[in-house]
Amino acid sequence: MIDYLIGVDGGGTGTRVRLARRTSAGLTEIAQATGGPSALSRGIDNAWTTIQGVVAQAFAAIDVQHIPMPSCAIGLGLAGVHNKEWAAQFIAANPGYALLALDTDGFTTLMGAHGGRPGAIVAIGTGSVGEAMLADGSKVEVGGWGFPAGDEASGAWMGLRALNHIEQVLDGRVEGRAFARELIDFCGGSRDAVQVWLGRANQTAYAGLARFVVAHGESDPVACAILEHAGREVASIADALDRSHTLPLALCGGLGEALRPWLPPDTLARCVPAQGDSAAGALRMIERHLEQQGAAQ
Questions:
Q1: Is 249 exposed, middle or buried (0-12, 13-18, 19+ CB in 10 A)?
Q2: What is the pLDDT of residue 207?
Q3: Of the residues 88, 116, 151, 208, which has the maximum number of CB atoms within 10 A of its CB?
Q4: Average pLDDT over residues 188-212
Q5: What's the CA angle centered on 126, arms 192 and 226, to 5 degrees?
Q6: What's the CA gap between 76 and 101, in Å, rounded?
Q7: CA R_g for the chain
Q8: Among 200, 207, 248, which Cα is nearest to 230's?
Q9: What is the pLDDT of residues 6-61, one digit of tens each?
Q10: pLDDT at position 106, please?
Q11: Residue 73 is inside which H or E element, if any?
Q12: What is the pLDDT of residue 295?
């Protein structure tokens, strides 16, 4: 008997969980919780450990001290699901949930943004991806290739370009302004310290530099150029998702709103507010999965 539905949004920066209970009146959301990153690139065991910790927080908020996994159905939208080997390993490591549905965090973001109806999203956070559901129910995906080869316009993509700029400033190849000085200070304050930072940096660390790019976009020509380029990349993803420009388009993720001013005007004109987030979309996904299972029995 499934009593609880869980929606999980897991990315390279953080994890969000929505917990709902099935009642005679339908599905009622009863708790939320957040935690650290659970992207599959960080390891299958690490992803499950983080997710279980955040789910446990959500249950603790309703005074349930242990996750009742045999009576739970869990839907997960995770970064890294494009790697089918990782996805299969993650599903195989299910710690005991009665029902599990797994898809990309891009798809669950799409489900949340348009309430499960046709539409398109470009999700921009630590990474980036575009997803669309067409009127016939078919899916289109653009990007999502991962950092550093892809993830255009993402936080990590911006951070990598910001790092390249301060390398040139430290070399004396270009002049640095306040933007570069703040970045250098953040990374340790010297050439040697930046080298150490680079040796330790992962996708999440690079994404942590995006806030400096956004903060200096109006005042620094290098930051401005990065953001203008990001805006063009978002437009390119959106165009590939929907050549007809007829689907509603939502900008999602932690950097979606910050990039709105940098979009080409025709792309901005297509944008609508997202109805819900990726965790809400994961909850909707597992609810549909449960309904389909019931219909098939």
A1: buried
A2: 95
A3: 151
A4: 95
A5: 70
A6: 6
A7: 20
A8: 207
A9: 999 998 879 999 999 977 777 899 999 999 999 998 899 999 999 999 999 999 99
A10: 85
A11: strand 72-78
A12: 54
What one-letter code names the amino acid at 282?
A
Write down the pLDDT at residue 294. 65
Tokens of 137: 């129910």
Q: Which amino acid is at 116?
A: G
CA distance readout (Å), 137 to 106, 114, 125, 204? 16, 13, 26, 33
Banded model confidence at residue 288, pLDDT cuts 50, 70, 90: confident
C-alpha–C-alpha distance, residues 66 and 45, integer Å: 19
Pairing of β 4-10 and β 72-78: parallel
The residues, ordered by sequence, that sit 6+ positions from 176 with a Cβ below 8 Å of its Cβ are 165, 166, 169, 184
What residue type is 13 in one-letter code? Answer: T
Overall size of the chain counted in residues: 297
Amino acid code (one letter) for 95: P
